[in-house]
Design a protein that fits this description.
Length: 425
């Protein structure tokens, strides 16, 4: 097909109304990586659902920690160890406050959302789930919130029940209510879908489960980066998230759990730190949170995550939410102009995640053409294969936005997608 036969990209609006009080150019200056060029073009980073970039405040805090405070925690009487322990526990306190946990002991440091869910599957699931019992998940879960429950069900002779998703990408709540039964031992659902963007009505879903005495785990990996989360208002029993999706470092994440549940749970891993006493015959375990933190933790990671939370709080989650929502509307509207583009996930309540396919174009080819333009998106199944099967696609292209993204970056994406049509059309 010749280029001239294709529709031209529409002109960008000349006057862009102010999006919000958020000063995005000032925000961008906080993120050194965003200044670089990729393949000779300014980097347009739209893969924030995979991992977010790190502000100077986080990079600097980690560097300062290693420069001035580094030592092992909870072990030494020496000065540096006490400094490091103070920084580590202070980070726990700030994260507890961020989630509005009742007590900082309800914050368990883990490697990320995946490890948090595995911890609950092992520590809570194994002792409480038996043959014939049921665990409810949804069809839009990331593999991290499917596989650990499948493994548990297999081991225990239990059954995994699945809340269906409708064509637009919303959970079918009548089905959810129908699935909740006498044998349900736990509900595990995502706050927001990494592949569709859908924000689930988790407060309502938690209340429905609690009315039947069923505890609820929320996978907050795609929730906390975009909205204020108050675990006590939600009344969730467990909430997990990954630091690296919240502008913090990789290798650190959080499991929030209600104290009474954590107290009754089995430890997940054995080793140093998590014990009260050890003889060759028997071990007694430390109290929470230490019981769940075997081995030397990711101290710098915890401190860096707290710095990321301070950074986000300084900007203001409400402003971030408003800015991203306006940017999402703009992006959705502009992407509708691209011939042949079809959204996967059109729920009214969405975080700034946009999945799409384009005719017969393979998403990896779309991603490769965009990469040549300096634009980073994710293509593939997004670790949500059952969801891809639900929509009968092998993969999607996904642009996921953060509060440092701009309208002109969306325009660059749209222009590059017109090129995709030229090349692959
Ligand atoms: N999603 C993406 O969508 P970890 O790898 O433990 O930091 O996070 C796992 C995870 C759990 N739940 C949801 C909803 C997620 O989105 C993710 C990670 C990434 O690109 C990687 S597949």
């Amino acid at each position: 097909m010749t280029t001239s036969a294709l529709p031209l990209p529409p002109q960008t609006a000349v006057v862009s109304p102010p999006v919000d009080a958020l000063d995005v150019e000032a925000v961008r200056r906080d993120f050194p990586i965003l200044r670089q060029t990729v393949r000779g073009k300014p980097l347009v980073y739209l893969d924030n659902a995979a991992t977010t970039q790190k502000p100077r405040a986080v990079i600097g805090t980690i560097s300062e920690f290693y420069r001035n405070e580094n030592a092992s925690v909870h072990r030494g009487v020496h000065f540096l160890s006490q400094q490091a322990t103070f920084a580590f526990e202070r980070a726990r306190g700030r994260i507890g406050k961020f989630l509005n946990a009742g007590d900082s002991s309800e914050i368990i440091f883990v490697r990320g959302a995946t490890e948090g869910i595995n911890l609950v599957a092992n520590g809570y699931g194994r002792p409480t789930v038996g043959p014939g019992d049921e665990i409810i998940i949804s069809h839009m879960e990331h593999h991290s919130n499917i596989v650990p429950w499948q493994m548990l069900c297999e081991e225990k002779g239990a059954t995994l029940r699945v809340i269906p998703v409708d064509d637009g990408g919303e959970l079918v709540l009548e089905e959810y209510e129908r699935l909740l039964g006498d044998r349900t031992r736990l509900v595990a659902v995502t706050h927001a879908s990494n592949a569709l963007g859908t924000v689930n009505p988790i407060e309502q879903m938690i209340a429905t489960a609690h009315a039947r005495g069923v505890p609820v785990l929320i996978d907050g990996a795609q929730g906390v980066p975009h909205m204020r989360v108050d675990v006590r208002q939600l009344d969730c029993d467990f909430y997990v998230f990954s630091g690296h999706k919240l502008f913090g470092p990789t290798g650190i994440g959080v499991l929030y759990g209600k104290r009474n549940l954590l107290d009754d749970m089995e430890p997940y891993q054995g080793g140093g730190s998590m014990i009260k006493s050890v003889t060759l015959e028997k071990t007694t375990f430390a109290d929470v949170p230490t019981k769940f933190e075997a081995g030397t933790p990711n101290i710098a990671g915890a401190v860096g995550l707290a710095a990321a939370i301070d950074y986000v709080n300084d900007i203001g989650l409400d402003r971030i939410e408003r800015y991203e929502s306006t940017l999402l509307d703009y992006a959705t509207q502009r992407l509708e102009e691209v011939p042949g583009l079809r959204f996967i996930g059109t729920a009214p309540e969405k975080v700034s995640v946009i999945s799409f396919v384009m005719g017969d174009a393979h998403p990896h080819d779309i991603g490769t053409i965009l990469d040549a333009e300096g634009i980073a998106i994710r293509t593939g199944h997004h670790c949500a294969q059952p969801l891809m099967q639900r929509y009968q696609v092998a993969a999607t292209a996904r642009a996921s936005l953060a509060f440092y993204n701009t309208r002109s970056e969306i325009d660059a994406l749209v222009n590059a997608l017109f090129k995709v049509n030229e090349v692959l059309g």
